[in-house]
Amino acid sequence: MRRREFIMLVAGAAAYPLSTSAQGNVRRIGVLAGGRSSDPESQAGYQKLRQRLGELGWEQERNIHIEYRWWAGDPNVADAQAAELVKWGPDVLLAIGTPSVEALRRRAPTLPIIFTVVADPVGASFVQSLGKPGGNITGFTTFEPEMAGKWLQLLKQAAPAIRRVAAIFNPRTAPMILMPSVKAAIPAVQLQLVPAPAHNAAELEQAISRFAEQPDGGLLIFPDAFPLVHRQLILNLAAAHRLPAMYPFPSFVTDGGLMSYGVSITQLVGRSADYVDRVLRGTRPADLPVQQPNEFQFLLNLKTANALGLNLPPTLVAQADQIVE
């Protein structure tokens, strides 16, 4: 894996070297993200961020300079990327994912940090409370613990024959606040929970393949940058082993996964522009309450359901916000 990936893949966007100096009143926005710059979802998020900032009066090369760094699902890379951004001298930092916040906070304990795609900012000690962050960090949460029950219910409705579910997660990056909620919801759907931790692609393939050796299984993919980076591998393994799976983000379903229930990362990144704007105009992060998700999307892929031999009940299909055929 390359240590540094730049956002040179978005049409019309340029990756500026850290040595470039700001001109006039150009404000600097540093972004640390857990995906890969080559991922279409990463590109869509970057475009949404620029679009929303433009609506708020901020334009790249005119009065803002956005600098991206990516750690591609590997938290070992995040700290070095954070150090580069902080050395550059940003006015505000945007952290996408919990490991991004942790890395930036270590390197810049006083710089304003706006986060997004973070499940538990209070538990991670990023903020004192959602209503009153109380420091230099605030932002947008991604999931509510209660969603774990919804994930399992929808998966069971789609594949009533499953008896076991493997929870796929990277212990170093996944929002583990969700695990107690998953365990609490398991009895209601009468499933056996099989925790399946994985730190890299090889462990991921081994965990899913080993789980698939026994019949009647399904997958629950925890939400963070690690499964996003390894999205195609997970989708290929689920298809090869004929495993129904609940995914955390819509991009999994549009790329061939069975179903997802959650937030759009692209929309969350776009929403974060509002807080970046507020900070650039002088508002302290401590005075900006943490925002929770305001919309969840349920996606179903009927082609994948047919390939898995699933006869989806009409009541389940009717719940979907988007059908992929």
Structure commentary:
With 325 residues, this protein is an alpha/beta fold. The chain has two domains: 27-142 and 264-287, Rossmann fold (3-Layer(aba) Sandwich); 147-262 and 297-324, Response regulator (Rossmann fold, 3-Layer(aba) Sandwich). Helices cover 38% and strands 19% of the residues. The protein has twelve helices and twelve strands. It has a seven-stranded mixed beta sheet with strand order 7-6-8-9-10-11-12, with helices on both faces. Strands 2-1-3-4-5 form a five-stranded parallel beta sheet, sandwiched between helices. Strand 9, helix 9 (250-254) and strand 10 (259-262) form a beta-alpha-beta unit. Helix 1 (40-55) packs parallel to helix 10 and helix 2 packs across helix 3. The model is unreliable at 1-23 (pLDDT under 50). This is Putative ABC transport system substrate-binding protein. Pfam families: ABC_sub_bind (PF04392). InterPro entries: ABC_transpt-TYRBP-like (IPR007487).
Q: Report the principal-axis shape.
A: elongated
Q: Please count the beta strands (DSSP E, at least 2 residues each).
A: 12
Mean pLDDT, all residues: 90
Q: What pattern of helices and strands is seen along the backbone?
A: EHEHEHEEHEHEHEHHEHEHEHHE
CATH superfamily of the largest domain: Response regulator
CATH architecture of the largest domain: 3-Layer(aba) Sandwich
Query: Helical amount among residues, as a percent range?
Result: 25-40%
Major sheet details: 7 strands, mixed
Total individual domains: 2
Distance between the termini: 34 Å
State the CATH class of the largest domain.
Answer: Alpha Beta
**Number of helical regions:** 12
Rg: 20 Å
Structural class: alpha/beta
* Percent of residues in beta strands: 15-25%
* CATH fold annotation of the largest domain: Rossmann fold
Biggest sheet: strand arrangement: 7-6-8-9-10-11-12
Stretches where pLDDT is under 50 for at least 5 consecutive residues are 1-23
